[in-house]
Structures are given as C-alpha cells and as structure tokens.
Sequence to fold (277 residues):
Amino acid sequence: MKDKYGILGYPLGHSLSPYMHSRYNFYLNNGSGYDAYEIASDDLESSLKELHTAGVKGLNVTIPYKQAVIPYLSSMDESAAIVGAVNTLKYTAEGYIGYNTDVTGLRNCLIKNGLEPKGRNVLILGAGGAARAAAYVAVRSGCKSLYILNRTLEKAEAVCRDFGGSSYDYSCLNTLPDTSFFVFQTTSVGMYPHIEDMLPLPDEMLNRFEAAVDLIYNPMPTRFLEKLSQRGIKTVTGFDMLIEQGLASRSIWNPEEKISDDIKRKVYDECVRYSRS
Ligand code: ATR
Fold:
C-alpha cells in the first residue's frame, strides 16, 4: 500500500512542502503521497487521531501548531523537547513521536549562506515555535547576546526563561541596546497572501541590522528583506531552510531512503520555479 505523509497547519495556502515532497516521491518512484491537512485549532486533537488511525506515516507541522501539537504526541526526541516545539511527526503504533528539523534546517541554511551567529548580538523577531528553534541554534552556536522581540511580551519572556537573553515588545523598542544585530525573522508577518505587511520596526533600527534571515519563503524575498537589501544588508530567505528541514524530516521518516545529489538539485530548482509561478 502507498505510504501517506502530509503537513498540518492553518492556513496552508503558502506552503511549498506538498509540492516539494511530491517531487522527491516522483523521482524516487516510491508511490508515496504527501497531502496538505489544513485544520482548525479546535479540531487539532481529533484530526491527529484520525490521521493516526488512517496510518499516515509522517507529518510536518507548521504555523500555528508547532507547540500546540505537543500534548497529543506519544513522545518527543531530545532536541525537540529542549526547543519545546516540533515540526516533524513520525508514526508509531502508540502514537506520533515529535522531532524538530527546523534546528538542522536552520543550521545547514546558515552554513550554506556563510552566516555565523557566533560572537554576534542576535535579535529574534517573534516568540513561537520557529523562534525557539532559532534561539536554540543561536545559543548553541555561541552568540554573544540574545534579544527576543515579540508582540506578546509574555511569550518573549517564556523563550528567555528557556534560552536566556532579554525580552521586549514593540512598546519598549527604544530600550534595546544601541548595537548592531544579527536577525532572525520568525513571525508570519509578510507571508503570502499578506505580502505587503511588515513588523513595526523603525528605519533607525533596520539600519543597525548586519544580517537577517527571514524564515518565510513565500514570498521570496519578503518586504522586510527587500527593505534590508536596499540598505546593502546581507539577507537570506527561508528557502534553503525549507529545503534542509524537508530533507531532515525525510531521513527521520525513512532512514534508509537515499536521495542522490542530482535529485536534490532537480527538486531544489523545481521548487524555486514553482514558488515564483
Ligand atoms: P510557529 O510556532 O510556527 O512559530 P506561532 O507560535 O503561531 O507559529 O508564532 C507566530 C509568531 O508570529 C508569534 O511570535 C506571533 O506573535 P504573538 O506571540 O504576539 O502572537 C507572531 N505574529 C503573528 N502575527 C503577528 C502580527 N500581526 N504582528 C506581530 N507579530 C505577529
């Protein structure tokens, strides 16, 4: 029987994962399917049960469920437990096990783009599951200091309790230290279809950014990154992270699966074209 996989989130109109994984499955000729499960938050628990009963072998989890899904898992691997967020679920008879491949994805994306948070003042915009993965990567790589800026201050405080650093909301922006920042943009602001949206950051502050990674890959680049590029600041879209976390998820679902460099390159190029179409 054909193996079933998919992605869980709301909304999912922006997601490239169904296309990306379907292209890998096509080239690998493995007969597997990958579907989008756009689920309202009230239905999260019952939907997960249904997917489990239906034998769905693996799931990706995206906004806004990377933390919300945790109570319904049978267990979590160590790095997902430390991060406190999951983006990959693997089927077992007892239930789904949660993993976090955003961490691997982000690390590999930084390496690929020659970026290194080590010794830098890292500013994370947002305080959800993706922000927690970014905080984990920043701290593990030896950042000099960590600042979490979020619309809801309590959530920024919660990230700081787990990873260190200082928390801010937009009302106390002027109390952020007067340094330059290495930035991770982890909120959904500016994501398709609301591509004109931007976080309320004053120009004076944007000028102090030395590099920025926006975890959003649709659009590519976001308005936020466009504004930074215009200032000559090094920017990286969420595309490489998407590709890298997707490969890491696949190796959790099927450790024996081998994907040649040729297939990786083809799927990468097709996803770039698809995201621009
Ligand atoms: P994920 O787990 O995938 O990171 P999430 O937990 O829903 O998703 O987190 C989304 C992040 O985007 C949060 O930091 C959220 O801010 P709040 O904690 O205040 O909700 C942020 N976000 C979403 N819409 C926003 C907006 N219009 N302005 C500012 N921040 C926003």
The chain has a mean pLDDT of 96. The two ends are 33 Å apart (CA to CA). Residues 62-64, 66-67, 85, 126-131, 150-152, 155, 186-189, 199 surround 2'-monophosphoadenosine-5'-diphosphate (CB under 6 Å). The first helix runs from residue 17 to 28.
